[in-house]
Amino acid sequence: MGALARDRFERQSGLVPTDRLQSTWATVIGCGAIGRQLALQLTALGVPKLQLIDFDDVCRTNITSQGFLTDDVGRPKVEAVGDSCHQLEHQLDLETIRDRYRPTYQIAPIVLCAVDSIHARATIWRSVQHRCEFWGDGRMLGENLRILVADSEPARRHYAQTLFPQQEAQVVACTSHATIYAANLAAALLVHQFTRHLRGLALDVDATFNLLAGEYVVAPLTE
User: Fold this and answer.
1) pTM for the model
2) Is there a contact between 131 and 123 (Cβ–Cβ < 8 Å)?
3) Distance between CA atoms of 113 and 222, rounded to whole angstroms?
């Protein structure tokens, strides 16, 4: 490893195993509030290859709630996020797909989902649950966050039980009430669980964080 590479990862050594990090890659599905922050944090962390999937374009409200630049307005989100990632790491191997997720797409062993609806999550999950080694799902409504991850069969079974019918979900979409600080925190909690996976540590498979109340709760696995 050269001097530049040592400098790149020096301060996170001992916390993030560089060899495992450099031998994997990640798919981020949904490049909005949480998804954009996920892509940036994974790039900064040192994931060498990133696949971004999103069909949407940037609008003005995305500047405040999702951190896009004014010059990004009107651009496809995957392109705007990809450009920001490349500014962080010029050598990042990047694939952008301006589309909804489709089962025919090849995905990474690490899949992070940040879409708007339970129905979309359930559809994606049915396709990828046996094709990825680590799954992460970030959900946000205002200042309430829920972080779900799975890298084992018990965790996968638990996650499936969180995919309740759409009519049982809150009517308001997560993007209707969103802040950049909550999105950043949700992404950080997901990336933290990813690094625990890399280190072979037990995961908090279902955690909720109520920012206003200052409550962080980890639910037990359900069998």
Assistant:
1) 0.92
2) no
3) 21
- The pair of structure tokens assigned to 161 is 């039980």
pLDDT tens digits for range 34-68:
999 999 999 999 999 999 999 999 999 999 999 99
- Identify the CATH number of the domain defined by range 16-218: 3.40.50.720
Domain residue ranges of the chain, discontinuous segments joined by +: 16-218
Find the length of the chain: 223
74 and 58 in contact (C-beta within 8 Å)? yes
CB distance 98 to 106 below 8 Å: no
Query: What is the number of alpha carbons within 13 Å of residue 44 lying toward its C-beta?
Result: 12
**Complete DSSP assignment for the chain:** --HHHHHHHGGGTTTS-HHHHHT--EEEE--SHHHHHHHHHHHHHT-SEEEEE---B--THHHHHH---GGGTTSBHHHHHHHHHHHH-TT-EEEEE-S---TTS---SEEEE--S-HHHHHHHHHHHTTT-SEEEEEEEETTEEEEEEESSHHHHHHHHTT---GGGS-SS-GGGS--HHHHHHHHHHHHHHHHHHHHTPPP--EEEEETTTTEEEEPPPP-
Query: Up-side HSE of residue 172: CA atoms within 13 Å toward CB?
Result: 9
The per-residue pLDDT for 6 is 61
Specify whether the CB–CB gap between 92 and 48 falls below 8 A.
Answer: yes
- Contact call for residues 101 and 53 (beta carbons, < 8 A): yes
Q: Is pLDDT at 173 greater than 70 in this prediction?
A: no
| Sign of the torsion formed by the C-alpha atoms of 35, 37, 42 and 48 | positive
